[in-house]
Design brief:
Shape: globular
Strand content: 35-45%
Oligomer: single chain
Distance between the termini: 98 Å
Helix content: 10-25%
Number of helices: 1
Radius of gyration: 23 Å
């Protein structure tokens, strides 16, 4: 009988311990994996920007509410980044924003409004990019000065209002393919560089480039009738190119 009581007590402690471990696991998950919503304009590092919640970490999904601008004032990271309507993300100085997964830029709802990710002299990396189709007066914009933007996964863009705009000698790298045949507007300037480095066949978007680099592997296809290169055309890796000449 004494042995039975000891076994019973032992089993009870095992159940209690298992319950504590389960509760701890739930708490850890809630702390380290969560949605973060920017509810007021402010710095990325400020908890007030996120409605009093903790600053986003690598596992968090970030949403920028309508009309809100978040300034990346220190090296920052998150899992995904989504926009609701208008507003922006500004990377100050040489700071960086690393998005492990997808950046989704929704369509602004009113004319003459934009959502802009302003990279400046900093760095933006993402696992993929989706820019929803807008109009000529409602734009999703990624602007680059002397900094860099690297998209490691697939880029999907709409037919109008999707823009990459250089103001200085920055760099834009497409490490992934494009999901459709639509063209974003790529506006370059002297000294800027656009790199297509997908490990496979890749379509070079119709644009006027300054420096254009084709690297990685596979055939890079561009339309010679609508593509202009004012600077250098550079090949790297085993990439090759084919041009379609319009009459």
């Amino acid at each position: 009988m004494k042995t039975l009581n000891q076994n019973s007590n032992s089993n009870s402690w095992v159940k209690i311990f298992a319950g504590v471990i389960m509760l701890f696991s739930v708490c850890v998950q809630s702390v380290f994996s969560a949605a973060r919503v920017a509810s007021v304009s402010g710095n990325w590092s400020a908890t007030a920007t996120w409605g009093g919640a903790s600053v986003p970490t690598l596992s968090d999904d970030v949403t920028i509410n309508n009309g809100i601008t978040v300034t990346v004032d220190q090296p920052a990271e998150c899992n995904t980044l989504s926009t609701v309507n208008t507003g922006g993300v500004t990377i100050s100085g040489t700071n960086s924003l690393a998005v492990t997964g997808l950046i989704t830029m929704e369509r602004p709802s009113a004319n003459n409004t934009n959502f802009t990710i302003a990279v400046g002299a900093g760095a933006l990396t993402s696992g993929g990019l989706t820019m929803k189709s807008t109009t000529t007066t409602r734009n999703n914009i990624i602007s680059i000065s002397t900094g860099s933007v690297t998209i490691n996964g697939t880029t999907t863009n709409g037919t109008t209002g999707c823009r990459f705009i250089f103001s200085d000698a920055g760099t834009l790298v497409f490490n992934g393919d494009f999901a459709d045949a639509d063209n974003p507007t790529i506006t370059t300037t002297t000294g800027s560089t656009v790199v297509y480095s997908y490990a496979g066949a890749q379509t070079v978007r119709n644009a006027t480039y300054y420096h254009l680099t084709l690297s990685g592997s596979g055939v890079k296809t561009l339309s010679a009738s609508t593509t202009t290169i004012n600077g250098n055309l550079t090949f790297g890796g085993t990439a090759s190119a084919t041009a379609t000449v319009g009459l």
